[in-house]
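re: ur question from earlier - yeah i can do the single chain one, its not a big deal. heres the input i used so u can compare w yours
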Amino acid sequence: MTDSLRQNARFALRQLRLNPGFSLVAIACLALGSGANTAIFQLIDSIRLRTLPVQSPQQLVELHIDDMTHARGGTLRDNSVTNPLWEQIRARGQDLFAGTFAWADEGLNVAPAGELNEVAALWVSGDFFRVLGVQPILGRVFTAADDRRGCGLAPGAVISYGYWRSELAGDPQAIGRSIVIAEHRVAVVGVTPPGFFGLEVGRTFDVALPICSQPALGQGRLDSGTTWWLTVMGRMQPGMKPERLAPVLRGLSGGIFEATLPAGYPSDSVKPYLAMKLLMAPAGAGISRLRDQYSTPLNLLLAIAGLVLLIACANLANLMLARASARRREMAVRLALGASRARLIQQLMLEGLLLAVAGVALGLLLAQALSRMLVSFVLNPDDPTFLDLRPDARVFAFTALVAVLTCILFSLAPALQAARTDPGNALKSGGRAIASPRDRFRLRRLLVASQVALSLVLLVGALLFVRSLGNLLAIDPGFDPRGIVIADVNFSGLHLAAGRTGAFHQELIQRVRAIPGVQSAAEASVVPLSGAAWNNRMWMDGSDFEHARVALRSMVGSGYFRTLRTPLVAGREFDDRDSQSQRKVAIVNQAFARQLAAGRNPVGLRFWIETTPFEPQTVYEIVGLVKDTKYRNLREDFEPVVYTPLWPRTLQSSDARIMIRSGLGPGTLVSAARAGLAAISPSLGYSFHVFDSWIQDSLLPERLMARLSLLFGALAAALTACGLYGVISYTVARRTGEIGVRMALGASRGNVAVLILSETAVVVALGLGAGAILSLGAGRSAAALLFGVKSYDPLILIAAGMAIAMVAALASYLPARRASNLNPAIALREE
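and the output i got, formated as tokens:
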């Protein structure tokens, strides 16, 4: 058995070497198909499947709240808790877990002044590194003793391996050196190993600080029961099952929430707060915003790439069938000399396996470049993405599985057909086909029809995603983002007295407006389409809380609507008289008027905003009505939005977010704004974002789907065209004698061309019919990713069908023309 396998392998290699054209085409097709699949799987593996690079990651669980609906205050990240809650969980959960820890990420400035230079920082509890089993390569990591109230900056900072190499040049004497964070000097106490990137897949960290150091850096979250910012995780005891631990954790929830109820919590939210429960979820793979955002698109792209690979396999199966037909005499001789049919099947399967291994191996190399290209598609320049794209065991196993499946898919049918060869008939025919054309080409036509069907599915999907992206780009968000730069300014370095903060906000906006080339500028607490949100329940005066509805909020400075070019529909904008008055005023959008004011002109009406942790129940008078604008993202419907004034007398923050409009180009405007802010004070910190680019970056998932689905659709159409061309050309070559007889009996060149094209039309029509049915089902699976287009859009289906039909017509034109130009005498002489 081993000898025969070795002989067949040598013979298969010789056959492939003697047919370099066929071998190169087959390997190239497989490399493209398998490379695309492997690249996408590699990205899925990096984002979803890999476990954290820590000790026994399968024992890690995340503790989160069952329902955050009534979590009043500010939520800085999903599934988070307040610091008082974390301290209660730590104290009461000591007997439940082998260890617990809390952490949060934040960008912290390391530039002494001028343009902000942020590092990715982690706030970590004292047991963070111990519970994870992370040991330093230099110095030490934090312990529980480091994370105590009032610790200041004494515990120092633990830095990542990457930050140590890039910023400290890998200095082996780095322990004890100081780095500047938020204008404070912090000593380096340890360096983490190179494989540890943190707990969020898709992001890495530079610096870790203990949670107790927050007050020393000007943060005030330790005692806040309304700032939800910490992620809590625990390590289960060895042998403990989550289903046994979960009920105990729920039982502790009542005491934890009762002990942490914030003073002054809105009365209507007290009961829901006390009813909150703590749940657990596996955390061995960490958490990831990237995973939440791209899991569905990547799964769909893997399915699309799989269809492309199927088309490539169908193409190769056709080529193998053609080769098997051409080698009928060879197979007949081998059978006549005593070779078994199993031996022939083994030989042809080995040839296919060699092609598959070569193609998939090349595809694995190609996948490395493709996966990096995919990462560039999902990369947001303002939010650097870190992914470990090194192939692991799962990637190699997936690649091996692809090799085996492709071998079976394109080799099995040709091998079985060759093994069914009748030696007597094959030798008597001298290698000529003796079966009818219908029998001879039925399988090959079926393969081409399947290619057409799958190509139609892919092209329909591509057009749906392109149309969806086009719809998003064509949306009128209610404002004009072109020509706007967003400046984030921090002036904590000025160390202003509390009473001077509001006045400096006013002075700052006036100085920005005076920068040459600036047309208008305004402050805003929430920039549209930034993903940030602030909402409260509101009701019209004369109604009651039972009829309240949730509306979005934003605090804006004077000139906000003029800067955004959002039209004022009725009433007026905020002005100086409002800042001197004690009455509360607001401007609302059209959706507010429709949903809360029953469609009336709301100017002059009053409404109430519920009690919040920061403000009692308050009545506002509406002084203006503006056009609807998008708030969080472009996909959302227009929702009720309330704008309240950002008056200097109410401002206590040392941060300002200013929207600047100019007729200058973005680069010129940023340079001018940078110079203008530096002239105000060298102690200012600032960073800039081009508003239009910011919005474009928010559509990265949609761009990924549109670009790659269109690329795969075009690749599928090209493979289908090649397959159709090959089958029709082979048909013409094998029917040369028949065509010669037809022409000798009076058939015109046009009749011959129509004969060939009509057979092509039948195959294409069958494929388009099957593809149309498949497209309806495939479209429904992608419906959640579409915007403004139905998954069964008939116009897109017709357009895709026409495109495939045109490709098919071009692919069959040359063989049909060649057939019509045959010389009957020469054709009959060859026959």
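The chain has a mean pLDDT of 84. not sure if urs matches, ping me
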